Amino acid sequence: MSGDYQTLFWLLVFTACVSLVGIIASAKSLRNLVRSDFFIERLKEVKDGKVLKAIMLLLAMGLGTGSSAQSTETASAPWFDIGMEEVLAMVVINIVLVGIIFFLKKTIKDMLEIIAPAPEEVSVEEEELISKVGQILTDAVPIEEEHTILMDHEYDGIQELDNNLPPWWKWGFYLTIVIGVIYMINFHVLGIGDLQVEEYEKDVAQAEAEVQAYLVSLALNVDENTVIQLMDEASLANGKKIFNANCAQCHLEDGGGAVGPNMTDDYWIYGPDIKTVFSTIKYGAKNGMTSWKEKLTPIEIQHVSSYIRTLHGTTPAIPKEAQGEFFEFILMEEEMSAASDSTEVAEN
Which end of the chain is more exposed for a tag (fewer CB within 10 A), N or C? Predict the structure, then answer.
């Protein structure tokens, strides 16, 4: 047998045991109640056959609870293989026990009514109010006056009543007419509201704006772990502008190097990959390179990092001597592919 059947079976057994204990305790308590002299005296005044039958059944159930509990324990004692059939059997047993619980609930309610019947206070004013409200809502003709609205035709002895439409239905119909007039004036005469097509177009425009804002937020949230090489002209042009305004003092506009190292040769102090270049610009370096994270946005750092890497292999006017270690500089194809995909998403 599978573990699922095993767990479900014993869960149902536990539920049945709990229900059975509750039923036995309730039945014994109620049996003692119905055997009391006070209840017997009150029972003689009751002429409801259903209540009497329920009480007799309860007595029979209460007398047999001991034997039924014993038989259940005996049947469930030995170990045996449990399959789908046993699980279904326990489901049926639980359903029966739930039915008994509902029966006990109904019986307890009937007994409480026997012991302390609720006074039947009928408010004439309340009945008249309900009758008036019903008459206003339905405009129904009383049964004793239905002969006044019988129609002339008859089919197989069946006649039709010429009832008026319920007022609530007519009020609803009139309300739809008023709403229709207001709708027509608002949307088709005055043009205050947007029709479905215009509303759809506005929703689409709003969604596109939200998408663009999301893409911008992604770009602004770029860091040294997610940065990629950008190769589109707009990004590189912005990177060159940032480089000339902030970096050329140390590296010269052609990247040949002055105070800072040469950006065009194969020697790099910290490495030529896009993530290392981005991190160096963002956090600075111990050789005197200042941190730019407070002056440039992440996307601006990405632009200038991408531009700096494109300076490799160019010929500066006065190249500075090599610094750092030799690296075989390759603008990785996967970086270019990723950059191209990013550009296409932003443009679309």
Answer: C
